[in-house]
Design goal:
With about 200 residues, this protein is mostly helical. The protein has nine helices and no strands. The model has no long low-confidence stretch (mean pLDDT about 75).
């Protein structure tokens, strides 16, 4: 997988990073913990600049947060929970996920958007309650951008800091990352099946 990600970034540059980070937020096929360190490593080869990859990663993350924000804003909590019960399994979003993110938002307000952008697992979901509560768009974008910039910069610096050693790491990372990806794919399928059964049970109850 590592070589595949590197090939995409090599052929598309910063646009590829932005696209991968956008997809990671909407539907996480490849986590940012893989994308940005690999992009940081490519800086050491002179293919990209550090600033450009951080900007690209941040832009992709911010754009990826908007669909979930607007989903929450337009549908509201009740309709969104019903949608999650019926179809959320395809995006691995459940009612419990939405309610958990909502509690974070209720407890910490708009600042939760900033802090949650630094937390794997809830980074994308926090956009939903922000939309449900109709958080001011300018504030949402500002908190999302700052949190995303810090997250992408830290991950990119990790890859940059490893530098030439990353080539040796890649020899082990590439096969291991495919195993991890395969495991995540299996977990995704299991979760889809489980949520579909739970949704069917609720509809029949």
């Amino acid at each position: 997988m590592a070589k595949w990600v590197i090939s995409i970034i090599s052929s598309t540059g910063s646009w590829g990073i932005a696209l991968l980070m956008f997809l990671e937020n909407v539907f996480p096929p490849i986590p940012s913990e893989v994308i940005m360190p690999l992009a940081g490593y490519m800086v050491t080869n002179g293919e990209l600049s550090f600033i450009s990859i951080v900007i690209a990663g941040t832009v992709g993350s911010v754009l990826g947060a908007l669909p979930l924000y607007y989903a929450g804003r337009r549908m509201g909590e009740h309709r969104l929970n019903e949608w999650a019960d019926r179809h959320g399994c395809w995006l691995t979003i459940s009612r419990n996920d939405i309610e958990s993110a909502s509690r974070w938002f209720d407890r910490h307000g708009g600042v939760a958007v900033f802090f949650c952008r630094l937390l794997p697992g809830i980074r994308s979901l926090i956009s939903i309650p922000a939309g449900i509560k109709q958080m001011n768009m300018a504030s949402f974008l500002a908190f999302t951008a700052v949190g995303s910039a810090i997250w992408t910069a830290v991950l990119a610096f990790l890859g940059y800091w490893l530098g030439s050693s990353f080539q040796k790491v890649d020899e082990y990372l590439n096969p291991i990352s495919w195993v991890i990806f395969g495991g995540l794919a299996i977990l995704y399928i299991v979760r889809v099946i489980k949520q579909r059964r739970q949704g069917a049970a609720k509809q029949n109850a």
